[in-house]
Amino acid sequence: MKRDELIKLVKNMTLYEKVSQLLQITADFYSEYAEERTGPLSDMGITEDDLYGVGSVLGISGASESIRIQKEYLKKNRLKIPLLFMADIIHGYRTIFPIPLALGCTWDTNSIEEMARISAKEAAVSGIHVTFSPMVDLVHDPRWGRVMESTGEDPLLNSVLSKAFVRGYQSDNLKDNIYSIASCVKHFAAYGAVSGGRDYNSVDLSELKLREQYLSGYSSAIQEGAKLVMTSFNTVNGIPSTGNKWLLKKILREDLKFNGTIISDWGAVKELIPHGVAASKRDAAKLAINAGVDIEMMTTCYKENLEKLIKEGEIEESLVDESVLRILELKNDLGLFENPNRGANEDLEKNIVLSKQHRDIAKKISQQSIVLLKNESVLPLSSKELVAVIGPGAHSLDILGAWSWKGKSNEAVSLVEGMKKISDRLLITKFNQSYFELSDEELNESLSLAKKADKVVLALGEESWMSGEAASRSNICLPPAQVELFNKIKEVNPNIIVTLYNGRPLDLNSIGEAKGIVEAWFPGTEGGNALAEILFGIYNPSGKLSMSFPDSVGQVPIYYNCENTGRPYEVNPQEKYVSKYLDISNYAKYPFGYGLSYCKFTYSNLRINNPVLKSNEKVIVSVDVCNESSRCGVEIVQLYIRDKVGEVVRPIKELKDFKKIYLEKWENRTVSFELNEQMLRYVHSDMTYSSDEGEFVVMVGSNSQDYLEIEFLLDK
Ligand code: NOJ
User: Fold this and answer.
1) Is 132 in the pocket of ligand 1 (CB under 6 A)?
2) Given the CA of residue 132, which atom of ligand 1 is nearest to it?
3) Per residue in 104-143, pLDDT tens?
4) Is residue 229 within 8 Å of residue 184, measured between CB atoms?
């Protein structure tokens, strides 16, 4: 349809029909079973008639179900406006890929685009039109369970990866490519900065930091064409996002130039009441519609109040018209008016969902996301060695992560299953050990296996419910039963390789004496195969942390791109009056960008082709990277800068570019980066974006703490 036809359609709608379009409810309202309908229907005051005016539905899946519902809906909808189906396809539909924090550790835009394309295809054939992804909230606090949904702590990495998600989901032709789906970027804004790492908590953040660091992920997704934005549950500087006019109108619409649909998070409009900025559902509706929220997810403030508010002259009907038009445009962009069932297709669903091809790609991406944190010559394993495989993660199929709605753990591959495909010299625990308790029987068996073995693979971590939404932890250590197991095993066999399944950076001091540590995150359906191939060196690890691991929870929030203080610790660590703790270090245990390989990569000869950079010109920074080993591997070469003197304090380092390179054994390669004036711009105190003339340090290395450095001058 053309835009003027959509405008005409809005004009033909009654106020009731328009307000109905702004409501989103869950799929169970449309269930065929009457008893399921009565519960939620009666609780939310939704009548049978209302169902056929509602604009969108959350959580429908399955081609036949979506086709059935759409058919029934269109039969009863007066103007034949199709129903829109949305869902949380976060890191895969049924083929589950690693959690987003792990995807961040791939630093690989192609892989993320590929995972999003596959997720979109599986979802689209199952009847879904929109995904609530990517979540691009920048994160600094591993106590917050939702760090698992983010790609990490860095604005640049988040920004390039968020674009890759959107490209993968939406393709370059959303309308005609019925196997693509629309992308909803979330949670706008700054949800990752919740105070104390406690979910749903307040966010108090300077506008400077908001603009410079936190907006980058959202703004890049928008530039890439993301069709929707979801508001966040939190306040931003005293005003909940869902009723925050400045945030949604000034920042999102005006500055970031977003002209798509804004949807509230689940219940967030009504939550304006407990937040304490609205006294009633009527007030909440007024605040949210004035702020620019188009769709209200799962509460009925709009439904119950917008008509009255308009009739009583408290809000303009044009506000509702604009929201409805945006929703109809989204439906039109998806081609739903012409093709209301879009990609839904039962045959394809059977053939492609969880296909061998999708599983193979999931394995490849899991491998790229796994980070080797420590290796004192214990890895890779050889299939000649006798290896004990014990610990709660050994047989665990709880490896999909908290946002794997349609993923089934019984379709996942455990570590033991993966290892058995490679070696027959394994001593495998017969127990499905708990992550929280250790029986005498389990301990005794573990000790006896460990004693006999050359090396021990001890699989530890978190269960998936321990991260994700509403899963903040104040203590980010491993549970005591796991530490006890580690300590006892260490006494009989010190050659311990700890593998970890978890959704956040952890405090790993309790297993500090492990000779090897492999961070596998929640690696998805093919996790056990991916991890096993890394342990045996069939795949050479290449993942690099996208979020720092603190040395202690007391350092949190900890992130590499912090500001210098007036009393920097590094200048004189012995001095009392410097910025430090009395009892713990200032440094991350494993910093942003860190990750080992079975190769040894060395960096040398950092150089710049011109020590002075002029506007409209560029300089080339080059470094030689050598693979000093007899196996090939992948290295992620990272370039950071530091603006030595700025109008506002600049971070001690900022990632500005990176290159993922493949090196043959013993290969020495020159890697070059271009730097230009635009890359040196930042947000000034008056919120304008520009660069300062003067000296810059450029650092190139294998992570945010190990690098070579050189200086240049910006002379515009
Ligand atoms: C609440 C979560 O915050 C959000 O990320 C999700 O997309 C919605 N629920 C819908 O399930």
Assistant:
1) yes
2) 7
3) 999 999 999 999 999 999 999 999 999 999 999 999 999 9
4) yes
Region label for 87, one of left (φ > 0), alpha (ψ between -120 and 50) or beta (otherwise): beta
**Residue spans of the chain under pLDDT 70:** 33-42
Q: Where in the chain is the domain with CATH 3.20.20.300?
A: 3-87+180-342
- Which structure tokens are listed for 539? 């795949």
| Intervals of CATH 3.40.50.1700 along the chain | 354-555
3-87+180-342: which CATH topology? TIM Barrel (3.20.20)
> Could you give the CA distance from residue 675 to residue 59 in angstroms, rounded to a whole number?
45
By C-alpha distance, which of 579, 586, 699 is closest to 644?
699
Beta bridge partners of 577: none
**Cβ contacts of residue 545 below 8 Å, gap of 6+?**
105, 152, 371, 505, 519, 590, 591, 592, 593, 594, 595, 703
CA distances from 601 to 169, 662, 665 (A): 35, 11, 10
Alpha helices in 425-521 (DSSP H): 440-452, 480-492
Residue 472 and residue 454: Cα distance in Å, rounded?
Answer: 38
Active site residues: 265
How many whole angstroms from 265 Cα to the centroid of ligand 1? 6
**358 close to 411: Cβ distance less than 8 angstroms:** no
Q: Are 153 and 559 in contact (CB under 8 A)?
A: yes
| Topology adopted by domain 599-714 | Immunoglobulin-like (2.60.40)
Q: Which residue has the tokens 């992620």?
A: 636
List every span in the chain annotated with CATH 2.60.40.10: 599-714
Fold of 354-555: Rossmann fold (3.40.50)
The residue whose CB lies within 8 Å of the most ligand 1 atoms, and thus the one to mutate among 60, 148, 230, is 230
Ramachandran region of residue 436, left (φ > 0), alpha (ψ -120 to 50) or beta?
A: alpha
The reported pLDDT for the residue numbered 461 is 98
Q: Which residue has the tokens 């899963």?
A: 471
* Predicted pLDDT at 33: 66
Contact 88 CB / ligand 1 (< 6 Å): yes
Encode pLDDT of 616-662 as tens digits: 999 999 999 999 999 999 999 999 999 999 999 999 999 999 999 99
